[in-house]
Amino acid sequence: MADSIRAGRMRLDLDQHDLQRLVDAIQCSKPVCGLTHDFYRYPARFSPQFARTVIELFTEPGDVVVDPFMGGATSLVEARALGRVGIGLDVNELSCFIARVKTTPLAPSDIKAIHSWIRHTIPILNMRLTAKRPHEWIARGYQRNIGTRQTWPIRKSLEQALARVTLLKSEVQKDFIRAVLLRTGQWALDCRSDVPTAMQFRERLQQFSAEMINAIGEYARILNSNRDVLSHDQIPSPTIILHRSAETIDSEPSLRVYDAPKLVLTSPPYPGVHVLYHRWQVLGRRETPAPFWISNTLDGSGSSFYAFGDRKQPQLEKYFSTALAAFSSIARIALHNTLIVQIVAFSEPTWQLPQYLKTMCAAGLTELKLQGVQTDHDGRLWRVVPNRKWYADQRGSRGAGKEVVLFHKLTV
After folding, report:
1. Which residues have C-beta within 8 Å of that of residue 213, sequence separation ≥ 6?
2. Could you tell me what percentage of the chain is helix, strand and coil, using 3-state DSSP and rounding each to the nearest 5?
3. Strands, DSSP E only, in 13-99?
4. For the chain, which has fewer Cβ within 10 Å, the N-terminal or C-terminal residue?
């Protein structure tokens, strides 16, 4: 556990084995898997092994872990599984939907109802049968680029399945089925040069539903094993998900009943790096907001809304002013022993990293460095992200292919 934190450096009460665990977790390049992590491929996910190791090393059971840019909710899933209180925020309603499904265990009655729905629905996903068209969603553009000659069988299969979601009785059941359809739709449409057939869609829907039911069952068993840690009256809920910005989070009424976070573990939007948090790319770069339709959530915002501003803006003024406001609010909910750990990538790290660190300093945070551990000449822990399919602000820039892990605390 963290023994002491001093300005300009961090001294950890870790033996060599645990220190190596931390480095290995940061460098982990294994495919994201385990628990409910595979429910959806949210962009810029960090490794569950990284989240798990950081939570284990810097918190105790019952402590509060906050992720102010939770994305795919990796940190919340791991926090709850380890007996910590997880609090996540995101401006993307799709992120909140995914987080809710990934952290909500199902009762046996829910699983029985979902099995029945799958069993009766898959056989009637038939291209010869009519589908109830979601005209309101269509009019608002949520089916853009998925009605082409190649993609219409997938669109129609989703329409037929979504029309039957109302047959389920509880919102938990409906959300879970929507999550299964979301995962299958992403597999069929996102970042593919070819589109599977309707039959292949049905087969994968059957496979994913079985995998996700097994995963949520295993997750529920883990939660049940540590329920005594998070069951006392002072904790109204071991997981809280807020659809909101991190700005002014210090005035959020729902957080007043919780202790200050022992750990802030997050990955904010990356400066100058284009990431589609809210769209799928169909047959090249044809964007579609279909995931919002499938999950019954709303979009209505451009990419700059989710990324702290336009990546092409000179000097990224909007990005850094938004980051300053967000991290200033985060600093106000922290205590002297709160550790802030974040993974960040840059399109042009030469000037963006110094500017980012200046922004953290202006927000009231001091950078810390691990003694005796580094992977680059600057004394920080960097990791290479292979085969990254994002687009930096300048053609040919390679900065976005590397991520750095930053450690901060409140400035004394």
Report:
1. 106, 111, 114, 115
2. 45, 15, 40
3. 64-67, 85-90
4. C
CB 84 within 8 A of CB 77: no
Hey, what are 308's tokens?
Answer: 């702290």
pLDDT band per the 50, 70, 90 thresholds, residue 157: very high
Q: Can you give the pLDDT at residue 237? A: 82
Of the candidates 336, 367, 341, the one whose C-alpha atom is nearest the C-alpha of residue 265 is: 341
- The Cα–Cα gap between 147 and 205 comes to 20
The percentage of the chain sitting over the pLDDT mark of 70, rounded to a whole number, equals 88
How much is the pTM? 0.91
**Fold that domain 2-96+229-410 belongs to in CATH:** Rossmann fold (3.40.50)
pLDDT per position as a tens digit, 104-134:
999 999 999 999 999 999 999 999 999 999 9
Q: What pLDDT does 45 receive? A: 78
User: Which residue ranges make up each domain of the chain?
Assistant: 2-96+229-410, 108-220
- Alpha helix (H) residue ranges in 226-312: 290-295, 303-306
